[in-house]
Amino acid sequence: MRQPQGAQDWRSRFWSFVDHYVDEDNPYARFLMSNRAAVHLAACVVGTLIALVTAFLLRFELSALDRSANAWWPWFLSTAPVLVGLRVASFMALGQHRASWRFAGARDVLPLAVSVAAASAVTAPVMLLVWSGWFPRSILIIEFLLGMILLAGARFSFRILDVVRRGAGRDGRVPVVVLGAGSAGNMVVRGMLTGELTDYWPVALLDDDRLKEGTTIQGVPVKGTIDRVAEVARQTGAQAVVLALPTATASQTYRVLRHARRAGLPLKTIPDLARILASSRVTPPISDFSVEDLLNRRPVSAENPLVSRFLGGRTVLVTGAAGSIGSELCRQIAEQEPRRLLCLDRDENGLFRLEHTLRRLEAPCEVVPILADVRERARLADIYGRWRPEAVFHAAAYKHVPVLQSHPAEAVRNNVRGTLNVAELADEYDAAALVLISTDKAVNPTSVMGATKRVAERIVRDLDARSRTRCNVIRFGNVLGSNGSVVEVFQAQIRAGGPVTITHPHIERFFMTVPEAVRLVLCAAALGKGGETFVLDMGDPVRIADLAEQMIRLSGLTPEVDVPVIFTGLRPGEKLYEELWTAAESPRPTAHAGIRQASSEEGLDQAQREDLEALLRAGNRHDEVGCWRYLLRLVPSFRRQPEETIVGAMPPPPVREQTRPAAGLEWPGAAIKPAAAELRAAAPKQAPPS
Questions:
Q1: What CA–CA distances, in Å, run from 684 to 440, 572, 589, 643?
Q2: Assessment of whether the complete model's pTM goes beyond 0.70
Q3: Closest to 24 in 3D by CA, of 16, 32, 35
Q4: I want to staple 244 with a disulfide (CB 3.0 to 4.6 A). Which of 79, 185, 268, 473 is the partner?
Q5: Helices then strands (H, E): number in the chain?
Q6: 240-271: per-residue pLDDT in tens?
Q7: Residue 169 has pLDDT above 80, yes or no
Q8: Helix (H) or strand (E) holding 292
Q9: Following DSSP, what letter does each residue of 613-650 receive, concatenated?
């Protein structure tokens, strides 16, 4: 039924007043803010007088005794100036006249109560003295309670009206169910109610803690456990689910994702607590649930003042700058304000895109894109001689295991020769620091790629022992979102309708995001004193089959129904499980919780230096037999896998050893998986292929 015109006019005038009071851009609100002290003191005076009059009325007019004004008026006239004066003085002494009404909170209540109580407490003995004890003591008690209510109401009036206004204007906002009734859930709900998250409106909260069921947060009810997502969404009309559990484990995240998909609702998420606390935002941003949220880990904080001191004001060279890791290195190094950033890569298109990105981000340093190949020593020497880099990050490398397994000479020329050129020239031109970006595939390698990276690690450690340049190796696993990564492949296969191809149902890999990996790389580089091998905290390994299944579900499809999944068998050189260090390296903690130092001192002796020269000559001649021979000699732990383990029938999953590292070295995912080691032990040394 249509409402009367008078009611509509009244409501229109009311909301117009609220908008003028709440909106800080209105002249009325600007006037109040520019005269904040006067407004506060005026509210204090008016509130105190109203509370005092009401106290006398309640005490006498509702009493069976004398109800005439003459009975209490003299008391009121003598009390009012004393109480008002003391109340104003206490307000100013405690700084209450400077408090902001717009951002009033729980911390404002105690100073307000102290100022109100102080004035009432001092007034009581004064009045008893003036009236020789003939003064109703209950007056000041009643006045204190009423004064506190009135003054607190005035203080919080802005917030109350703001919430009412936003609640009345929520028609265009998406109703959501918030999962998690803890601190993060409270921040999210508050952000939605106060308008910082303007696209959403909370209609219910769910939490597995049954003690919270039936309670409310910011007026929003907690309706039960997370398993009731579909039921509560139907009851409340929710159109999305917000995951406010930033410390949720992978299994909890999978469970939430299943419930959201079953209810047919999109899942949104907020950052982890470390990023919330590091952010300048009061309210965490809400974003679509992504593949990164499926990791069996939460990103490790990588803030370290040593990084700025290590890179600030220096000339920094990054090789492989156009790659996934290299480009992120350039972006984050630029933020540390080096004097000059040299971005070296042989990929012309990638180098162009990187330069464009850095200029768009207004990098606060000179950016020099360099088109060059790390295999060409003369070209590198010219670059070192001209620019004199003081810190070198060597990220240029071939990385695809199956491709390099068929092209060992190219792997040697790029991964070994390139590293030797970069490292020796860093020493020759007096660079202060050299950092090699390595991989978990260099640990007990079963592939040419891993073996060449292991040789590169030995080259850098050997150089550190005889050079003034501080040389370090930083080792980590796979990164989500890198070029040619499994995530990129799965996404393309899902878009094409499948099939999604996985090499083995039990294959696992370590993962971290590119930005987090680079932040930790920079921290490790700043911590290094020379000769260390640092290992990044990769969390627990991720089962690739689980990752593929969840990516299919994130796309709104069902595995094996909409998108088939097939297992193709392990590819040449591929492991079931990766390792982050060898049994002899015994990683120990560093000053950073996300970084461990492996105690490897594996360099090169004279015989091995001769083998290295022979390996490089074989690579230059494209002598694949020679490359295999000398890789096997330089990396004793390198074993070719028997052919039947590569393309044959897939064995059942191996039993995991439930072993732990040495006492005091708690390390996520530290249980050693023996599958790869068993394969190597079972495989006899074979002659290199012809």
A1: 23, 16, 36, 12
A2: no
A3: 32
A4: 185
A5: 26, 22
A6: 888 887 766 656 776 787 788 778 888 887 75
A7: no
A8: none
A9: HHHHHHHHTT-HHHHHHHHHHH-TT--PPPTHHHHSPP
So what's the pLDDT on residue 20?
A: 54
* pLDDT category of residue 164 using cuts at 50, 70 and 90: low
Smallest Cα–Cα separation from 393: which of 438, 449, 458, 361?
438
**Distance between CA atoms of residues 38 and 390, nearest Å:** 60
Rounded-to-10 torsion of CA 605, 607, 613, 618: -130
In the DSSP assignment, the letter for residue 213 is T
Helix (H) or strand (E) holding 6: helix 5-22
Given this model, what pLDDT does residue 542 score? Answer: 80
- What the block records as the tokens of 443 is 């640990």
Q: Please check the confidence at residue 620 and state whether its pLDDT lies above 70.
A: yes
What DSSP character marks residue 211? G
Q: SS3 for 245?
A: coil
According to DSSP H, which parts of 496-603 are helical?
Answer: 514-527, 544-554
In 473-580, alpha helices (H): 486-495, 514-527, 544-554
Cα distances from 548 to residues 274, 569, 684, in angstroms, run: 28, 16, 34
Three-state DSSP state, 566: strand
Judge whether 166 and 230 are in contact, CB under 8 Å: no
Pairing relationship of beta strands 220-221 and 216-217 according to DSSP bridges: antiparallel
Q: Answer for the pair 232, 179: CB distance below 8 angstroms, yes or no.
A: no
For the stretch 284-308, pLDDT in tens is 555 455 555 555 555 555 556 788 8
431: burial class by Cβ within 10 Å (0-12, 13-18, 19+)? buried
Q: 245 is written with which tokens? A: 């559990």
Residues paired with 563 in a beta bridge = 559
In the predicted model, what is the mean pLDDT of residues 320-332?
93
